[in-house]
Design brief:
The protein is an alpha/beta fold and 512 residues long. It is built from 14 helices and 21 strands. The strands form 5 sheets. Strands 4-3-5-6-7-8-9-14-13 form a 9-stranded mixed sheet. Helix 11 links the parallel strand 6 and strand 7. Helix 5 packs across helix 6, helix 7 packs across helix 8 and helix 12 packs antiparallel against helix 13. It is globular.
Length: 512
C-alpha cells in the first residue's frame, strides 16, 4: 500500500487512527508534559475513535514548549535518565521494545560499526540500541526573533525514519506535462541559507544525506561573500538554489552585475529555486523569475515556495508552482482551526495551522497551535498536478496574532502592507517604519523607506505607493523616503538576525 496514493478520505482516516495508536503506545506512556496534562484533564487515550474525539485534546501553545523544552522530549523511565520535576512521571519501556533491542543487539542489525574497536558487554549493546531510539543527538532552534530561541530535538530514530522518508519524497508527476521540469537526483543544489541551528539550514544537510542528493552549503553571505557564491554557482554547474526570497533577489542582481563586468557567465543550468522563511506573493515570484531569466537561467525555471518551522522539525514545498504546499500525511496529522473559535474550518477557508507529530521520538508536539494564519485555506485531496494525495495549504500565510496592528484607528494586516509595497513596480528594496510623534497620545506616523530600481521616476513611484497603500490597507504613508546607499540600507534591513529581512519596524512607544 502506498499511503501517498490513497483516496483522500481513506488516507485522512488512516492517518487519524495512526495518530490515536501513537498517542496510546508512545505519547501517553513516555511524554512527560502531555502524560501529566492528559491525566489532569481526565482524558482517556484508549477512548479515542473519531475526529470529534481528537477535538477533545487540548491545544499545545508555544509558551508551553518555551517554558521547559525538555518536558516535550519523549523520556521512557529507565535507570540513568535525568530526574523529572515533581509531578511528572513516565512509564518503563514496554517488554516488546526491550525484546526488539535484544534481537538487534544479538544480530548487530542495523550494524553498529563501533564494535570494530569497542568490546561492550551484551547488556551495553542492548542499552545502546535503546539509545539509538530515545537519546537526542541533534537539535534545531528558532532564530530567536522573540528573543527566546526554542530548541527541538531529534534522536537517531528520527533521522533514520521520518527524516529519511520525507527527504526522499521528491515528487515526480504521474503524468508529466510539457511545462514540468523533472527533478534529477544528480542535480546539484546550492543552499544560500545562513549557518545557524535552524530548520532552514539543517533540513538541507539532513535531506541530502538521507536522500543522496548533492548540495553545497554556503553558510550565508557572511561566510562566503555573495559574489563568490555566484562564481561558484556558475563554475560548479549548479541546477538549483535554496534561499530566502529577499536574499535571492539581491543574489540574482549581483549575478547580473558580475555578468556585465565580465566576471561570470550566465546561470544557464539554473532550473529551480526553492524559497522560504518569508512570504512570496505571485508578483514577487514573477519578479524573481524575471531576474533569474535576465541572469541567463533556463527558460523553464520553476520558483517553488516552501513552508517550515523549528517545531515541525522539517520543511515542505509545492510539487509545482501554485499547486499548494504539500504537507506530509504520514508523520503528521494536520488541522486548520478558526483563529477565535478554534473550531475546524471548511476546505479552502482561512484558519490557523495546527499539527500533531506521528511516529517521532525526541521532541513531540500534539495539536500544536503554530499561530500561522493560512489565508488561502487547506485542502486534503489528490493534487491535480502531481496526482498524489496530500494535505495542501495555500498562501498567503501570516501570523494570526502578530501580523496585525492598529494604525491611525484602522486595523491593518501587516503582511498585506508588506506585499502591497513589495509588489509595487519600481521598488527594489523597502522598509516601513511605524513611529509616533513626541507626545505619547499623538497620532501614528507611517514612514516608507524605499530603494528604487535604477532609472525609476521618484515622484511617480511615491504617488503609486501612496495610492496602493491607501487602497489595500486604508492607510497612506506620511512620508516616503528614498534611500541612496544600497549597501547600508541592506545592512539595516537584515540587522535584526541576519536571516530575514525586517520589512516592518515598530518604533511606537504605545503600539496596539
Amino acid at each position: 500500500m502506498n499511503l501517498y496514493d490513497l483516496d483522500p478520505a481513506r488516507q485522512q482516516e488512516r492517518v487519524l487512527q495512526n495518530l490515536f495508536r501513537y498517542l496510546r503506545r508512545y505519547v501517553g506512556p513516555y511524554h512527560p508534559f502531555l502524560r501529566r496534562l492528559y491525566r489532569e484533564k481526565g482524558i482517556d487515550l484508549n477512548s479515542l475513535r473519531a475526529h470529534a474525539d481528537l477535538l477533545s485534546l487540548p491545544l499545545t501553545q508555544k509558551d508551553h514548549l518555551r517554558a521547559n523544552p525538555a518536558l516535550f522530549v519523549m523520556q521512557p523511565h529507565a535507570p540513568g535518565n535525568p530526574p523529572l520535576p515533581d509531578g511528572y512521571d513516565t512509564e518503563h519501556l514496554a517488554a516488546g521494545a526491550i525484546a526488539k533491542y535484544v534481537f538487534q543487539a544479538a544480530l548487530n542489525y542495523p550494524r553498529d560499526h563501533s564494535q570494530h574497536v569497542r568490546h561492550p558487554t551484551f547488556r551495553q549493546k542492548i542499552e545502546r540500541r535503546g539509545k539509538f531510539e530515545w537519546l537526542p543527538v541533534h537539535y534545531h532552534a528558532s532564530t530567536g526573533s522573540t528573543g527566546e530561541p526554542t530548541p527541538v530535538t531529534f534522536t537517531l530514530f528520527d533521522v533514520r525514519r521520518p527524516v529519511n522518508e520525507m527527504a526522499a519524497l521528491v515528487i515526480q508527476e504521474k503524468r508529466p506535462n510539457p511545462n514540468f521540469v523533472p527533478y534529477d537526483w544528480s542535480d546539484r543544489w546550492m543552499s544560500l541559507m545562513p549557518a545557524a541551528p535552524h530548520v532552514a539550514f539543517y533540513s538541507v544537510i539532513l535531506g541530502k544525506l538521507a536522500a543522496g542528493a548533492p548540495s553545497f552549503e554556503t553558510c550565508g553571505g557572511s561566510v562566503i561573500p555573495t559574489d563568490r557564491q555566484v562564481e561558484l554557482f556558475v563554475r560548479g554547474g549548479f541546477a538549483g538554489a535554496i534561499a530566502i526570497p529577499s536574499y535571492m533577489t539581491h543574489w540574482l542582481r549581483r549575478a547580473q552585475q558580475l555578468q556585465k563586468e565580465g566576471r561570470v557567465g550566465p546561470l544557464k543550468n539554473l532550473r529551480r529555486l526553492l524559497l522560504g522563511a518569508e512570504p512570496i506573493s505571485e508578483a514577487l515570484r514573477e519578479y524573481i523569475r524575471n531576474l533569474a531569466h535576465r541572469a541567463g537561467a533556463d527558460p523553464a525555471l520553476k520558483v517553488i515556495q516552501t513552508y517550515g518551522m523549528t517545531e515541525l522539525k522539517w520543511v515542505f514545498y509545492e510539487c509545482s508552482e501554485g499547486a499548494g504546499i504539500h504537507l506530509n500525511p504520514k508523520y503528521y496529522y494536520w488541522e486548520l482551526l478558526h483563529p477565535e473559535t478554534r473550531q475546524p474550518v471548511g476546505p479552502g477557508e482561512p484558519g490557523v495551522l495546527v499539527f500533531s507529530h506521528i511516529g517521532w521520538r525526541g521532541t513531540v508536539l500534539i495539536r500544536y497551535w503554530t499561530g500561522d494564519l493560512i489565508k488561502g485555506g487547506m485542502r486534503w485531496d489528490r493534487c491535480e498536478h502531481c496526482g498524489y494525495t496530500f494535505p495542501r495549504i495555500y498562501p498567503p500565510i501570516c501570523r494570526a496574532d502578530k501580523d496585525f496592528t492598529k494604525l491611525k484607528g484602522t486595523r491593518v494586516d501587516l503582511s498585506l502592507l508588506v506585499t502591497t509595497v513589495q509588489d509595487t513596480p519600481g521598488v527594489r528594496r523597502f522598509q516601513v517604519s511605524l513611529e509616533s510623534e513626541t507626545d505619547e497620545f499623538s497620532r501614528d506616523i507611517v514612514a516608507v523607506h524605499v530603494l528604487g530600481e535604477p532609472g525609476v521616476g521618484r515622484e511617480n513611484l511615491e504617488l503609486t505607493i501612496r495610492q496602493r497603500m491607501k487602497s489595500a490597507v486604508e492607510v497612506a504613508p506620511d512620508r516616503v523616503i528614498f534611500e541612496e546607499d544600497e549597501v547600508e540600507f541592506e545592512k539595516r534591513l537584515f540587522a535584526k538576525n541576519g536571516v530575514k529581512a525586517d520589512y516592518i519596524v515598530e518604533r511606537r512607544q504605545h503600539a496596539l
